[in-house]
């Protein structure tokens, strides 16, 4: 039996069974989440609070000690792929479906199943298989939501000499009907922030409706470009084509009061600090792609980054 057929045999097998959230849905975690993303919706506070729908997976996480309810299906599949040379992995996308609001006090349970394995695919990263895992989250017997997570497990493409071909291109951003205006602005070297047509609230990232008043009408304002580092991480691994770790990725607090994730340039990764002033600039990554990045204020243009 070839590896493709052996992988297909994993479809339908459980990846986690009888999982239980380590904590009930609770207001402190909701508050921390909302503070981190800058969401001040009244729906997430007070006696009638619900949890933000996007926290769905957060209630299933095992923390540093993990869960003891995992099955061996994922480990078996990864061992099979690793043994066949498909040693690299990259997350490709996730989808969530919200069926029931989660409220403080709810005790969640979950189970996960390997839902799909693709035929062998060849990508710019290499050749491999897309694997989709579906997690069902419940409160009692009631399905509250589903979380689908897809990865590519692949054999890295062989390195080519720089004299033979240009280096690998940066991944393209996912552009859809909700954020197309943002990327059109970036192409013109303008950083546009949505402004609600109902309450005037500024929001980022772009959304189809206001998370404050619910209005769907909006226009845009152009960011001044001033900001500070609100928080950051230093990426050390895994090595990924077109990226050269270590490098810093930060949540930037813009002067307008919204936050966005971007690279910090013009300063070594180990010199980035919370509160560091930064200034917007646009980086021409290749012949097609322009990205907004933030340069540490006061650093010379030839500095690291």
What can you tell me about this protein's structure?
The protein is mainly β and 305 residues long. The protein folds into two domains: 3-156, Thiol Ester Dehydrase, Chain A (Roll), CATH 3.10.129.10; 180-296, no CATH class. Helix content is 12%, strand content 36%. The chain is built from four helices and 14 strands. It has helices at 3-8, 27-37, 73-83, 180-187; strands at 14-20, 88-98, 108-117, 121-122, 126-139, 142-156, 192-196, 202-203, 218-222, 226-235, 247-254, 259-265, 277-284, 290-296. The model is unreliable at 159-164 and 300-305 (pLDDT under 50).
What's the SSE blueprint?
Layout lengths: L2 H6 L5 E7 L6 H11 L35 H11 L4 E11 L9 E10 L3 E2 L3 E14 L2 E15 L23 H8 L4 E5 L5 E2 L14 E5 L3 E10 L11 E8 L4 E7 L11 E8 L5 E7 L9
Parallel strand pairs: 12-14
Antiparallel strand pairs: 1-3, 2-6, 3-5, 4-5, 5-6, 7-8, 7-9, 10-11, 10-13, 11-12, 13-14
- When the domains are counted, the total is 2
Mean pLDDT: 88
| Percentage of β-strand residues | 35-45%
Can you give the helix content as a percent range? 10-25%
| The CATH class of the largest domain | Alpha Beta
* H and E string: HEHHEEEEEHEEEEEEEE
Radius of gyration: 22 Å
Total strand segments: 14
The number of distinct helices, counting runs of at least 4 residues, comes to 4
> CATH superfamily name of the largest domain?
Hotdog Thioesterase
Q: Which CATH architecture of the largest domain?
A: Roll
Could you list the spans in which at least 5 consecutive residues all have pLDDT below 50? 159-164, 300-305
Shape: globular
User: How would a crystallographer describe the biggest sheet?
Assistant: 6 strands, antiparallel
Structural class: mainly beta
Oligomerization: single chain
CATH fold category name of the largest domain: Thiol Ester Dehydrase, Chain A
Task: Please give the alpha-carbon distance between the first and last residues.
Answer: 49 Å
